Amino acid sequence: MGTGNELVDVLVVGGGAAGLGAALTLARARRSVVVVDAGQPRNAPAEGVHGLLGLEGTNPLELLARGRDEVRGYGGTILEGEVVRADTDPLGFMVELADGRQLRARQLLVATGLSDQLPDLPGVRERWGHDVLHCPYCHGWEVRDRRIGVIATGPMSVHQTLLFRQWSDNLRLFSRGVEISDEDRNRFRARGVEVVEGEVEGLEVAEDSLQAVRMADGRRFEVDAAVVASRMVANLGPFAALGLKTVEHAMGSFIEADELGCTSVAGVWVAGNATDLSAQVGAAAAQGTRVAAQINFHLVNEETELAVAAL
């Protein structure tokens, strides 16, 4: 398949689990499909993907490499590049890449994932995905029975604290001024979770590992892992001209779509974290596969109607 100005059936923007899962299904359905990927997967800092049946612990970059090879094996095309603009086209959609290339497709699948907005504290961004964590189902086993500090960023931090208590009884919540109800404080007392009041100054890191949470008043609490609830925001910049609807949520913002991945813009579909903020790799890949089947079904109906009209 070429990558010039010819029209392809489906253009997938984003080569993570959702995008590659969709592309694999579409390629196997004998669709011409191109995946454009900027090469910046959200889970790149992690050592392994967890909770993925049959592939538990696989390095995330290795998993994506396998996926790209599988898509190519069925005739799909993988392009490295950054999409900077997407718009409608007389025959469907056009996207422009940062290097000036333009691609056209009948259908467009947005699988660009999300960005994590983290608190501006020294050490948090640097250790993100290593020993600064967010998801107990992704990382809880790896820090079981260790010293864990939850750094509050908002109401979701209470939820995080109660979840991570499942993996360790050595747990502190650093409130950072976030309001905690009396009911939640009672829950924490019942579960042996200490609430530390006051402002967090930053994280102490030595020899490539987290050592402690440092308070603005000089107190220091040794921890082996820190937990932070990021604000998760769907990566929508290049798609502004399409007018996609978004939904604001306590956890962040995402693209509005129905259960089949169909957005408010005809011909534009979405899968993965761009529409489901909590989807892990397995769920994102499965969602990409499901949405791809709907895209193919839509194209089959379109082609059938044209064939009938030509009789």
From TrEMBL:
Sequence intervals crossing the membrane: none
Catalytic activity: [thioredoxin]-dithiol + NADP(+) = [thioredoxin]-disulfide + NADPH + H(+)
Alphabetically ordered keywords of this record: Flavoprotein, Oxidoreductase
GO molecular function annotations of the record: thioredoxin-disulfide reductase (NADPH) activity
Keyword set includes Oxidoreductase: yes
Coiled-coil stretches noted in the UniProt entry, renumbered to this chain: none
UniProt entry tagged with the keyword Oxidoreductase: yes
Residues in FAD/NAD(P)-binding domain copies: 9-288
A Pfam family that the UniProt record links to this protein: Pyr_redox_2
Protein name as annotated: NAD(P)/FAD-dependent oxidoreductase
Species name: Tessaracoccus rhinocerotis
